[in-house]
């Protein structure tokens, strides 16, 4: 017979950051609208510029953050020096900096009012301590993933490049309504 | 569908394919078109700048071909793949992405004769120098490494049949020296051997053989294992240096663990041009849906025929790793326990002349230079595929004068045995 023991620590649904369920990522990408891109670059050859452009084209309001570029325009958007300078509520903070820098950026994000819903650290960026601090405040966290790759994977767009999306479905991909070569995150 | 990775049979049918977004067509459509309309000018710029996923022109990518690419990437457990016009094109674009003039690569001596020719002769024009090693002796690969070595190349099951390569031993040497390990997995197919699980970094295929499986379409695949970190590695400038054609983009950095496949596409396929036709991609995809069934039957049939031949009075030896006494049987048990494939060789006591006679006498086996067909095939390598090699090279490649190669098809084995018996009697 099972006996329920009292749990000394309050239960917090921490995510397994080694293996995200597709529905977790899809839920985040479907649920956010305003994305602060910390570490945005004006160099079109840099991954952060490419991801910013891709997400803007998918209808996200991407706000570039980079103290070195503050006040300039990047892909038609004003660049801010820091998260706290952004004048609108932020749904998701995308960290395009190294793993160490992700710590203070996360802490700054956790001082915002209202709080962001999501901290997303770019592919190769992982800071488990920062993730735990964010999750303790109820935020969702994604680490070591690229939102462009994840959007492309879940929508089916990345399959056009022969990339293994690791997705199997007998449901149709759905055009996003903005042309033939953009798919939505949901299948029907 | 749960996030658990589906099994091999499911992937063989479904990976990469979905009902068509525009029409609902369930089978993968043949997108027989050269080009694709851009959504707008900005979209065109994004595609040409590699900033968006999508289709431009069928030399660079095509939606039928991309289903094939993802299908094979999934079956091999790789990060991405590139479909090209032939197995030779797959090898060519792989080496083009890795090698600069003056560089070297090490290849196993026992290879498909066409690959031996490509490496020995065609590559000389590019200043790519092959150094041969013995796949039965992994230490010979280590001994051949120099500062110019940029890749190691072997076949998992080697032509002209009957050789199983110790992939883990050679992979360990490649890893120790930080050299990409390329495995041609044509003869095994991912159903029998999955080389990424044994340390390969890149896999190439002639899809013409078991993937397509019906002898109707030439095609090739390059699969990126995502395991070799090219970013920041000066030895591989195609992946680690800013590309002038793409505004200074560093492909190995921007595309991470599928950067090699992207580089083969946007630097190799785009500029050199050996694109696969969508129609061939469609036929190869159709073949792959039954790959697990066919590969098992091929292997089972081959074992039955090999067991019969090893007792025949006109035959001096049979080289098939499925046979218990074979020198590669233990490696076969380790690497391909489900079966040792369809292709094997045997030696005729009557030598070269008997080989020529045998292929003429066979009535059900087709005499042609291919393997991996539903039909059973026969060839006498010394007078055909390996003809351009010297006698010494022929013997080293396992294609001496008395050698006959069979590719066992999916027919009833009794019919195959009867045909071999009558042809041997008359030879």
UniProtKB/TrEMBL annotation, chain A:
- Enumerate the transmembrane spans: none
| Domain of life, per lineage | Bacteria
Q: Where is the CoA-binding domain?
A: 28-125
Which parts of the chain are coiled coil?
none
Pfam families of this UniProt entry? CoA_binding_2
Q: Which PANTHER family match?
A: COA-BINDING DOMAIN-CONTAINING PROTEIN, CYTOPLASMIC PROTEIN-RELATED
By what name is this protein known?
CoA-binding protein
Source species of the chain: Microvirga splendida
TrEMBL record, chain B:
EC identifiers of the protein: 2.5.1.49
Q: Which residues cross the membrane?
A: none
A GO MF annotation of the entry reads: O-acetylhomoserine aminocarboxypropyltransferase activity
Co-factor(s): pyridoxal 5'-phosphate
Look up keyword Transmembrane helix and say if it applies.
no
Q: Which UniProt keywords apply?
A: Pyridoxal phosphate, Transferase
Query: Record's family?
Result: Belongs to the trans-sulfuration enzymes family.
**PANTHER family with a match to the protein in the record:** HOMOCYSTEINE/CYSTEINE SYNTHASE, HOMOCYSTEINE_CYSTEINE SYNTHASE
> What name does UniProt use for this protein?
O-acetylhomoserine aminocarboxypropyltransferase
Q: Which organism is it from?
A: Microvirga splendida
């Amino acid at each position: 017979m099972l006996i329920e023991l009292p749990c000394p620590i309050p239960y917090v649904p921490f995510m397994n950051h080694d293996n995200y369920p597709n529905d977790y990522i899809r839920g985040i990408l479907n649920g956010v609208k305003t994305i602060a891109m910390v570490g945005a670059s004006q160099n079109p050859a840099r991954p952060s510029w490419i991801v910013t452009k891709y997400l803007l084209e998918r209808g996200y309001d991407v706000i570039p953050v980079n103290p070195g570029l503050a006040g300039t325009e990047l892909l038609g958007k004003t660049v801010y020096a820091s998260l706290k300078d952004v004048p609108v509520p932020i749904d998701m903070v995308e960290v395009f900096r190294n793993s160490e820098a992700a710590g203070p950026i996360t802490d700054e994000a956790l001082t915002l009012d209202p709080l962001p819903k999501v901290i997303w650290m770019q592919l190769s960026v992982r800071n488990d301590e920062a993730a735990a601090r964010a999750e303790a405040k109820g935020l969702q966290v994604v680490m070591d993933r690229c939102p462009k790759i994840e959007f492309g994977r879940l929508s089916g767009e990345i399959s056009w490049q022969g990339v293994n999306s690791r997705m199997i479905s007998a449901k149709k991909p759905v055009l996003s309504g903005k042309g033939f070569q953009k798919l939505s995150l949901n299948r029907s | 569908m749960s996030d658990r990775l589906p099994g091999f049979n499911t992937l063989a049918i479904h990976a990469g394919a979905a009902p068509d977004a525009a029409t609902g067509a369930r089978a993968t459509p043949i997108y027989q078109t050269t080009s694709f309309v851009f959504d707008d000018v900005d979209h065109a710029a994004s595609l040409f700048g590699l900033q968006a996923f999508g289709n431009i022109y069928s030399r660079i990518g095509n939606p039928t071909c991309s289903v094939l690419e993802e299908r094979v990437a999934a079956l091999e457990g790789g990060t991405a793949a590139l479909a090209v016009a032939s197995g030779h094109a797959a090898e060519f674009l792989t080496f083009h992405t890795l090698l600069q003039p003056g560089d070297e690569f090490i290849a196993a001596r026992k290879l498909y004769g066409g690959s031996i020719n490509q490496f020995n002769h065609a590559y000389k024009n590019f200043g790519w120098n092959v150094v041969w090693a013995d796949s039965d002796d992994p230490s010979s690969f280590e001994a051949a490494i120099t500062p110019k070595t940029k890749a190691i190349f072997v076949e998992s099951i080697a032509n002209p049949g009957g050789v199983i390569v110790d992939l883990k031993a050679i992979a360990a040497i490649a890893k120790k020296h930080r050299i990409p390990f390329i495995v041609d997995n044509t003869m095994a197919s991912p159903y029998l051997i999955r080389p990424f699980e044994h340390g390969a970094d890149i896999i190439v295929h002639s899809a013409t053989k078991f993937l397509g499986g019906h002898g109707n379409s030439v095609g090739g695949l390059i699969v990126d294992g995502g395991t070799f970190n090219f970013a920041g590695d000066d030895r591989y400038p195609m992946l680690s240096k800013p590309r002038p054609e793409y505004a200074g983009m560093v492909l190995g950095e921007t595309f991470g663990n599928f950067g090699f496949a992207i580089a083969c596409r946007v630097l190799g396929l785009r500029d050199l041009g050996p694109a696969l036709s969508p129609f061939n991609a469609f036929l190869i995809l159709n073949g792959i849906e039954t790959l697990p069934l066919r590969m098992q039957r091929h292997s089972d049939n081959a074992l039955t025929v090999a067991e019969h031949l090893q007792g025949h009075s006109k035959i001096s030896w049979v080289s098939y790793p499925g046979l218990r006494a074979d020198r590669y049987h233990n490696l076969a048990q380790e690497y391909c326990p489900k079966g040792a494939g369809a292709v094997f060789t045997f030696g005729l006591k009557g030598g070269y002349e008997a080989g020529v006679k045998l292929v003429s006498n066979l009535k059900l086996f087709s005499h042609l230079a291919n393997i991996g067909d539903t039909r059973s095939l026969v060839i006498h390598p010394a007078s055909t595929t390996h003809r351009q090699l010297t006698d010494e090279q022929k013997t080293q490649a396992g294609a001496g004068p008395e050698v006959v190669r069979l590719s066992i098809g999916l027919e009833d084995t009794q019919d195959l045995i009867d045909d071999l018996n009558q042809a041997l009697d008359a030879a």
